[in-house]
Each structure stands twice: as structure tokens, then as C-alpha cells.
Fold:
Amino acid sequence: MMSTLIRAGALALSLVVVAGPFGPALAQKTKLTVYTAIENDQLGPFKAAIEAAVPEVEIVWVRDSTGVITARFLAEKDNPRADMVFGTAVTSLIRFEKEGLLEAYEPKGASALKAQFRDGKAPYTWTGMDAYLSVVCFNTAEAKKGNVATPTSWKDLLKPEFKGKLVMPHPASSGTGYLTIAAWIQIMGEQEAWKFMDALHENIAVYTHSGSAPCVQAAKGERLAGIGFDMRGAREKTQGAPIDIILPKEGAGWDMEATGIVKGTKNLAIAKKVADWGASKAANEAYSKFFAIVAHPEVKNTPPNYPANAEAAMVKNDFTWMADNRDRVLAEWSKRYEAKAAPK
Structure:
């Protein structure tokens, strides 16, 4: 009996010794709830990169499209459930900033980023990651069947040959949708932009709830053209789709993904470490695997079939205007065009 107890005690001690170096490390992992609108295929790689750089953190994503995640965050503003916002449109973060929902913090290394990717107003609360543009994905095989000329202007999409064969994202659901209509208003002026959208609506088959869907549908030949975003178009073309990726001559709407810390988080120290990583060159190298335009000036990784001169085509954006007018513009848009929204 005594020898059995001794053996059991020795075994227990050996387990403590073996587990010792690992147990505390595992116990120190802090779960960080991060609201995001990044694409599903980016969740795994970014989680792995963050956790490798900040070993004491465990990233818990809450992911949805830009409009949905923005509405959810604002609905929870009296009792925030997120610790950070990551990879969400900067126009949303500016809105959060104005409502006092973000922690004042400038990450280490943020000063090295391009000026337009840095919060330009004190207190500093958000940092840009990457930019994405609105493009037209035009199926050349379908166009050949109907002898349809390649569009070069946004107004070319008003031609009768596009009737029922054009899709674009719903701007209340999709960040790509909102940046597109916001650019039209800034380019054309509000009165002319609504006239343009009224005419465009006649050619729209459906407003999708995803920024990726229009280029995907155009790539499959389900639609003649889709107003989507740059990287999805390039990816579909690289995979063999018969599409041209068009930057209309008036300019391309764009937004940037950004990150910020939620005010009042109980995990502030860890969140700051993640924010520091987010502004680093290593993080920008991770972003550049999915985006051609990133915040760090030394990181460049143009993917195959990405449209030339994309950065030059970006309209001069007033992000504060986009944030301040979002609710008003979306309400007017929904009043006019909601009938063609895809079912949720």
C-alpha cells in the first residue's frame, strides 16, 4: 500500500514538473474579442499572425459585413462587447470616434505609415491598414454574345444593353456599396448623383449584401457586369474568369480598413500590443497578401491582373463627410431602391 502511494505521488510530481513550463503559459492567454469585416478567408491567416506576434493573446473574431458589424457595434455602445475593431471601414471608425467609443492610443510605429492611413485628428484613435477600390467587373464573353462595348465611364452603365444584367452591393450592408455611392456623390454633386442612381437602378438586377458577390457573379457569367471591389476582381480574373477590371475614367471610390481599441476594454494592455502589431511592417506584409494598397510605404505586392494605376484613380475622399452623412445617405438610398435588394 505504501509503495503504491509513493508511486502515485511520484507520478503526480512528475506531471507537475512536466506541465510546469506550459501550464502557466496557457493560463496567461487572454481572449480578445475583435469585431471585423475582413473576408472569411482572411480570418485564419490574420489570427495566426497576431497570435504569433503576441503569444499571450487569443483572438476571438466576430465577423460580418461592414454595415452589419457597424450597426451591431453602435447598438452595443452602452455595453460594448468588443475589445477591438479590426479590418472595418475607416468611415465606421470615424463614426465610433465621434461617439466617444474608441480608446485614445497611437500604436508604436504608426508615424512611419502613409499620412492618409493615420488618424489626423487628436485624440488619435484609429490606424489604417489597407485600401480597397470600387471597380467594374465586365464579362467579355457575355459582352461578345450581345456585341456590348466595354464601359469606360460610370455613365456607360446606364446604356440599355445593361438592363437587368448589372449588379452592385447594397450600401447599407456592404462597405464596397457605400464607398461607391459616396464617391458618386463627391464626384458628381448630390443632385446629379441621385439622378444617376435613379437611372442606374433601372439596369440593376439585384443589390447584393456582399461586396464580393458582384464580381463573382460577373466572373461566372451570371451577370454582364458587377460593381465590386478591386482585389476580388483581380482574383477572379487570375482564376481564369473572362472579365476585364475597369476603373471608370471619373475615378474610383475607395475606403480603407482600419483598427482601433474599444474604450473601456478590460484588456487594454493586450489590445495595445495587438494595435502595435497592426501598425508594424510585418502586419502590412500580411495585409499585402490580400490587398494591393497598404499603409506602410515600403510594402508593395501588386497581385496578378490588378488594374494599373489604381492608386492614381482613387478619388479625393472626404472620410469625415462619408461618416457624418452615412445615415442620411443610406436612408435616402433605401427609400428609392430597396425594392431590388437581395433577400437576407
About this structure: The domain at 132-253+308-340 is CATH 3.40.190.10 (D-Maltodextrin-Binding Protein; domain 2). Residues 67 and 173 are 4 Å apart (CA to CA). The chain has two domains: 29-131+255-294, 132-253+308-340.
